[in-house]
Amino acid sequence: METGAPGTTALLAELPRSHAVARTERFTCPGRIFSPGEPFDLFLRRTARRDNYLRRRRWLERQPGYALEITRDPGALAAPLGAFFQFHARRWAGEGGSQGIRGPRVEAFHRDVTRLLAESGVLQLYTLKVGGDPVASV
């Protein structure tokens, strides 16, 4: 796990003491860093890609079956987390597979951790759907 990253800090705070944790410097997960509670509109004001984000969002919102689902309930994680793993595997398939989620044991760990984080009230799993089918997840 990436040391010093906000996600790492939150994860370590929520894990029960019974879980052994080893930190290893690996690849940094790409993405935007948002301040806790920062509204998306504030982020848009800070980025040079504002017009691009807004244009793409408007296009998506016009698509049939468009929905952005947010899963927080531990009992509802199976389907959205399964979609997340499928997208992740497809993303890295052309490069020999993922360094982050490799094999059933690591996937099981992520399932356990997402359940624990959801039970603690700190997980939000976003699934973007178009035509009623998942097309992206974070």
Structural description of this entry:
The protein has 138 residues and is of the alpha+beta class. Helix content is 43%, strand content 12%. The protein folds into two domains: 26 residues; 75 residues, no CATH class. The protein is globular, with a radius of gyration of 16 Å. The two termini are 17 Å apart. The model has no long low-confidence stretch (mean pLDDT 83).
Distance between termini?
17 Å
Count of alpha/pi helices: 5
Our estimate of the beta-strand percent is: 5-15%
- What structural class results from the helix and strand content? alpha+beta
Give start-end ranges of low-pLDDT stretches: none
| Shape call | globular
- Provide the residue-averaged pLDDT: 83
**Total DSSP E strands:** 3
Query: What is the H/E string?
Result: HHHEHHEE
Give the helix level as a range of percent. Answer: 40-55%
Which features does this protein show?
138 residues; alpha+beta; 2 domains; three-stranded antiparallel β-sheet; 3 strands; 12% strand
